[in-house]
Amino acid sequence: MGWILFFSIGIPLLCLPAYILIEMTKPKEERWGRSQPNQAVKGSGSGSMKNPPIRPSAFVGLETTQHPADPRTLKPVQGLTEYVPIYSGAFLPAEHQLDLVTMDDEGNTNLQLNLYNGQLVLEAPNGLLPNRSSGQVYKLGIYTGSIRGSAYYEEAVLNADTRPLAKAELVREPGNKYDKNAVAIHASGAGCVGYVNKQNAARLSKHLGVGEEYMAIFTSGCKRGDDSVPVSVLIAPTATMMSIFRNSGIPLPSNGITQ
Fold first, then answer.
1. Looking at residue 60, what is its pLDDT?
2. CATH classification of 86-246 is 3.30.413.10, yes or no?
3. What's the CA dihedral at 199, 202, 203, 208 to 10 degrees?
4. Could you give the CA distance from residue 245 to residue 243 in angstroms, rounded to a whole number?
5. In sequence order, which ranges of 95-254 are alpha helices (DSSP H)?
6. pTM for this structure?
7. Domain segments of the chain as ranges
């Protein structure tokens, strides 16, 4: 009796895993003894077609328009009065300009100012644009870049003349509750239009605090009543700034020093 039960129940159970494995390797529609009936598809010809092709699902992609990058952002145009941003890739890498920027013991430098893409940019005598974060520019005590926090002074920015070469004033704010080293940028007749970024302000504030003379000018911006162009500044020790202006052949603006 035991052998009969073994052959009738035991062996099929032992074979069940193998059967399941074989069935799982078959196409889904053929598993477990199932079969799909032939389907006739009406068409222009006669007869029927077995296993019609699977109808593709509909897919709608979002069409986007990519605007080509303005080549002037990486190859700025000298003398262009229209404002176009200048990307960092347009400037010479810091490690490639070891002998590009010079300075003597009196603070005189070989750098000059030139107009590119509607903004004043520091330029070496050979026409290359040194990187503002290079060690040479750092040693000169030069700070250049966009002002910070101008969104909080929209009315002042709108009423200010921040066009290239316009005078800017530096005002230390040791009592500033957000940053004891804060250095505000003031425009003539408009008041504060923004601040030097925090990293540069930490260095600059120390120099101003011990009485060193610095000058500041706007290098990009707008006339009064217009705020369509980002505001940038150039800040440098007075002797260095004067040499930059002499090299550039442009008149020296009024001193923008405030202790």
1. 47
2. no
3. 140
4. 5
5. 135-139, 154-159, 198-209, 238-248
6. 0.71
7. 86-246
